[in-house]
Amino acid sequence: MATNITNTNSIDPCDVGTPDDWISRHPEMVHLSKKYPFNAESPLSLLIDQGFITPNPLYYVRNHGPVPKLHWDTHRLIVDGYDDLFLLILKPLNLSMNNIEKFPYKKFSVTLVCAGNRKKELNMIKQSKESNWDSAAVKWCLNDINDIILAYKMNCERLPPNHSYPLRVIIPGYIGGRIVKWLSRITISNKESNSYYHYHDNRVLPSEYNVDQANKKNIWYNPNYIINYLNINSVITSSAYNEYILLLNFFNNNNNQMYNLKGYAYTDSGNKITHVEISLDDGKTWILAKLNQPELDHPVVLKRGINPIPRYWCWSFWSLTIPLYSFIRCEEISVRAWDATQNTQPRNPTWNVLGMMNNSHFRVKINTIVQGSEFHLIFEHPIQPGNLSGECNDVNTSITTSCSVLEISDS
Ligand SMILES: Nc1nc2c(c(=O)[nH]1)N[C@H]1C(S)=C(S)[C@@H](COP(=O)(O)O)O[C@H]1N2
Ligand SMILES: [Mo]
């Protein structure tokens, strides 16, 4: 059931004394990373309870610095650079927000995911490096099938300050880190960005590298290890972390009782999630879950000649109703998703120094205690969610994924 999410107009105690103490936050948002800058996600079950479209106040926030104080009336977008095709220095464009708003626009839903989603699970293996944002050159936008947009609205409202008021770029299917917030300049260039963070973040380095070795071998500059696209992933949201079920006289009375497992899945490149499977026996056998994919009714469609090309940029929800007794001899529930290119998830996590792109089978452990006719089930997630202590100093970023409708300037 959706919780009341209108109570957003309070300053979080963690923000007091920081440059962000003018931004109101939803009280349920869980602080990740250090006190400042603000990185937060909604508790997983609250996020899923909201349904397919996440309300703005519960949308995950990933900031690497203060939220800039920008204004609609004074904000400008400069487009400049060098046109490699025609060997021309371009005449810079200087656009106001009102100019941008007058371009033809369309609305569609996109799920954004930070490359650090499920990072905490990798930190359980070994602490990974805290990450920082970077910027990247994007020639990808010239292909209209990629649906690159300049967004100025989110869920029919102007973007909230945290989420890049007044303007951001959206690159569907790309990791959040390449989706620049507070956009003020687009420079067309034939060279890759030389920003420090372009090379030192949002990379999956081979597992044997720690920071020292990566620095020594200058491995950061190897183009093989850059991440742009999302990878296929799925998560169990119900049973929730530490969910507890006590069944009295279970073996006599309740053995037809059913349980509803739930979660989400997403993939890259506009591909469709085709199926999600659950295993109760460590991957020996798999049970097909039911998919809920509101996006299938209205995918983004590009017409090339007579061929419509649909793209799916949103997460899918899955569910599976099984008898509670299936958990009796089950030590662990695992989930894996498949997409239209037969891509699926690896069984085991692979640690990497930046703790990125973890998409191994998501596992929930079940601890069962049988005491006479009492039957206790305790569900244990791979990591503790968020920051249960209420402090603001947890550095184990696990930022999640959220979906919204974005209003786009189709320029
Ligand atoms: N200017 C700027 N853009 C940014 C960032 C940032 O810190 N500064 N963080 C990036 C990262 S790592 C992610 S995951 C997304 C998060 O977007 P959100 O906070 O609106 O969910 O924005 C990206 N764009
Ligand atoms: Mo990110």
TrEMBL record:
Keywords: Metal-binding, Molybdenum, Oxidoreductase. It comes from the Eukaryota. Its cofactor is Mo-molybdopterin. GO terms for biological process: sulfur compound metabolic process. Residues 225-368 form the Moybdenum cofactor oxidoreductase dimerisation domain. The keyword Transmembrane helix does not apply. GO terms for molecular function: heme binding; molybdenum ion binding; molybdopterin cofactor binding; sulfite oxidase activity. Residues 64-138, 139-197 form the Oxidoreductase molybdopterin-binding domain. The keyword Mitochondrion does not apply. Pfam families: Mo-co_dimer, Oxidored_molyb. This is Oxidoreductase, molybdopterin-binding domain-containing protein.
